[in-house]
Amino acid sequence: MSLDKEVTEYASKTPRSRALHEEAVAVMPGGNSRTTTFFDPYPFYFQRGQGAHIWDADGVERLDFNNNYTSLVLGHAHGDVVKAVQGVAENGLSFPGPTEHEIRLAEAITRRMPSLESLRFTNSGTEATMNAVRLARAFTGRAKIAKFEGAFHGTHDWVMVSVSPDPKAAGNRKRPKPVAWSAGIPPAVLKHVVVLPWNDQEACAEILAKDGEQIAALIVDPILCNAGLISPAEGFLPWLREETQRRGIVLIFDEVISFRVAWGGAQERFGVRPDLTTLGKVIGGGLPVGAFGGRRDIMAYYAGGVRAARRARRAAARRRLAPADGHASQGAGERRRLALLAALDDGEADRLSLGAAQGRGDAAARVHGARERGHPHDPAWPRRHRAGHQR
Length: 391
Fold this sequence. Notes:
Elements: H1 3-13, H2 15-27, E1 46-50, E2 53-56, E3 61-63, H3 67-70, H4 79-89, H5 100-112, E4 118-122, H6 125-140, E5 144-148, H7 167-170, E6 171-172, E7 175-176, H8 187-191, E8 193-196, H9 201-211, E9 215-220, H10 236-246, E10 250-254, H11 265-270, E11 276-279, E12 290-294, H12 296-299, H13 305-320, H14 332-348, H15 354-359, H16 363-373, H17 383-386
Parallel strand pairs: 5-8, 5-9, 9-10, 10-11
Antiparallel strand pairs: 1-2, 2-3, 4-12, 6-7, 11-12
């Protein structure tokens, strides 16, 4: 059967979907708000779903192998889920304050994933990874992040790098070049993203040895879903855990997809405990929700304002000054930065001049000084000042 014949048959069965697509194109670029849902000549429009089946606008029944990108573990319109959503809707859908529901969901998630000692909710997986990356930068005082070539972590600038790059622009396999995945990604972003080759421990070790002291976070999809579900080589994730811990890099597991592979996600399956974890709509039955969380000392940046955040960061600095392996694993610059932070927490702030630190070229001290003044994009920025910047 030729492709043309298939297209003709599809068009004959979906006239209502075609009409809806033509209407959509008039008010939305490409006729949609989710690029991955489009296919030629036009997508069929969903009318309803039940279990593993969906019906389109023309009444055609189809078996759904997508299940909203596998987020609907119970299928469409499961009775218990519908009842729960209706019950909440009857009492109001949105409030400018906390509810008991978020406490109970947070408790359920932390029971399943012990590494999430504390967490915050978002509206999507993209927001979860965006906040996790920013938090890692605030915690470490470093600017760069590392990610793997071929990995997708959402649609914010810092992770829209080398997702599916043109091989001609991607560089050497063992030393991939950062390549923007979309127009509109500033060149400055590419300078702050270190790209790693998946499952190549030797190459990763060389890259991290070169750039490690500047890297705030290494974000990893434990099973590289976007590139076709490529499992990690034996020992690769444990090695990443050891290497990031040794270099003071925050290890982020993006479990937006991989949370499905075990009760406690990929981190349970592979026996690796990350510093931070991100989750997506699967935790809300397919509804628009996400979460990020992890070590309590890192998440403390969101509790108690600037002072509590600084205390948490300095406590972590003191711990990292005494590496678990008993010998100095940080470079001289890194140890100076950690020593400064630790000392500040011991009441020596008055005796340390920010100007003197700048004279030594201590970039971390300058970051700390900026945080003293505060900035609306810093998680530690007081709530009363941040409110005007949130939507």
